[in-house]
């Protein structure tokens, strides 16, 4: 059997799994064949996807697809569960600093309708609860909270407010009205310091007024007290500093993975696995230690492939910078089928890929990191980083994928595309990708193919 | 060397036979689109070959483009409408810098560099309001054919304002306007303006003259004028605008086989 790097569909993975087993594959407790997620969890979308054929990718997928199961197990083992909503990488760092506490990301339920091809009817149930299709697919978390069939009800539910998408805010408020008590913390919209104002440097070459950093630090202090109360142990500076060091371990691994994959002459890992891996930065897929192990495996696989000049996508593929996560994972396969590869990404949480300063008081460092969130600042700041990363990654084209109903992207696509065109002059398109995009595949394919043709034609300029 | 381009659009299939040595069109034809797209495309292709007195073996390469390009299995390769319209328009109008293409089911704005290469593009394939489908709906509702609709629009003195952004609701609005006694020519011209406005929103940042208008809707008298008004610049209708996609496909068929790519 050919075991060089390549993509496999689910049938191919059935054989590959048996082969790996015969060769002595050692798996963690959540391991097993990918097929079982279709049979047991009704993750039907897996049947339409192409996966990387490595054991490291298998571990990544199994880790992702067993999150709810692992959370229920953790609850049974006595762990405290914290739901961290509208938070792309701050409160989870605090929660995992405490022993016996795990954070998860209820908003992540927005991928459930995609994975289950809407068979779970979460979106329809959300509509019946007054949150219709004009809202972000994150609305799927509302019925998931109510029916308890997905993640366990958390012991503590924390949600940021302030510089938050309108639709998300409405969904979270509806959740609270349904009786799910929420611990709110406020994050202001990041702005440039006024000339006379004390300024504070943030990760990602950003600046904010000191008063905003102070405000967020005080808010995070409240969150820390609440988490400490839940854990029965105060979240002091020393404990938090330990949590930050561990979070940075994850971030360093992700930085190394991104650098290795995106800078390689051809793609050593498919776009889909890279998207899933990057998402681990947000809340460690409910297990920080295992996240580190999964990423170490993946990085070792990728480094080995690069050393041996083994790739899954050819060197001729057009280098595409991708902005925003896709509601339907199939879209990432589609890009590669049409001759593209990812050379950089901004999946809305680039601040969670930057190292948290370890030379500052821990809460101050976290406050600065939280304020560097691309979603709490002007889109122009985000566009600036995208342009810099496009240049660094030698991007030939940019795709901004819109999430239907998500209010954060009402004009962001236009601003990002305009900035990219003006500053680096590469072709750029915006695509709207719903949770199941089958009906739109021809039109999505046309746009992506046209983008790739345009970028390729420019090579001969 | 003779190459063929097949543009399998949403409303019709267009085909062009092109002599790449003499850079001239040998034959072109069009047929309505249907369920059996490949059969329809194949029959059209055979008819063109017959008309031009050619055998299939004399065709060096075939490129399919358009919405249904992937159903044309006898083509050697497929290329998107964006690239094909760009090449086709550049052939008939080398000075073109912007192309507006309005088809039956989508609309596109393509920005060109010197030499006719695509700089950037924008597409609307999600909403019928900026496409020929809107005109078709109005023609059906008013029981007129395409040519008559254009003729009526030309008589307008004060085009009506169609405020609805959705074709389905606009239909109700049109009926209401006519019931209120609004002159028919003004209503039809209002529909043309409405389409032009949607396309101009798509064009936004791309428009730099000369602007060429192509696609089947460019044949509708009055549409170019409507576009000129909203874009505030001259809009020229490309020669035989319904064939520029197929023409570009035929030209690219020669290039792609000769150069191993675009």
Q: Could you list some keywords that capture this structure?
A:
heterodimer; A: 461 residues; alpha/beta; 4-stranded parallel β-sheet; globular; B: alpha/beta; Nucleotidyltransferase, domain 5; 2 domains; 5-stranded mixed β-sheet
Provide structural commentary.
The complex is a heterodimer of chains A (461) and B (262). By secondary structure, chain A is an alpha/beta fold. Chain A contains 18 helices and 12 strands. Chain A has a domain at 76-239: 3-Layer(aba) Sandwich (Rossmann fold), CATH 3.40.50. Chain A has helices at residues 10-22, 35-41, 55-65, 67-76, 91-95, 112-115, 122-128, 141-147, 166-177, 210-231, 237-263, 271-283, 288-307, 330-337, 362-371, 379-392, 412-424, 441-459; strands at residues 7-8, 51-52, 80-85, 101-104, 156-162, 183-187, 199-202, 206-209, 318-323, 340-346, 397-402, 428-432. In chain A, α3 (55-65) runs antiparallel to α13, α11 (237-263) packs parallel to α13 and α16 (379-392) packs across α17 (412-424). The two termini of chain A are 42 Å apart. Chain B is α/β, with parallel strands linked by helices and 262 residues long. Chain B has 2 domains: 1-93 and 241-262, Nucleotidyltransferase, domain 5, CATH 3.30.420.40; 97-238, ATPase, nucleotide binding domain (Nucleotidyltransferase, domain 5, 2-Layer Sandwich). Helix content of chain B is 40%, strand content 22%. Chain B contains 8 helices and 10 strands. Chain B has helices at residues 37-52, 81-92, 132-141, 146-153, 167-179, 184-203, 223-231, 244-259, and strands spanning 2-8, 12-19, 24-32, 59-65, 77-78, 98-102, 107-112, 118-124, 211-214, 235-237. In chain B, strands 3-2-1-4-5 form a 5-stranded mixed beta sheet. A 5-stranded mixed beta sheet of chain B has the order 8-7-6-9-10, with helices on both faces. In chain B, a hairpin with a 4-residue loop joins β6 (98-102) and β7 (107-112). The relative contact order of chain B is 0.20. The mean pLDDT of chain B is 89. The chains are: A alpha/beta (461), B alpha/beta (262). The interface between A and B is medium-sized, with 18 and 20 residues.
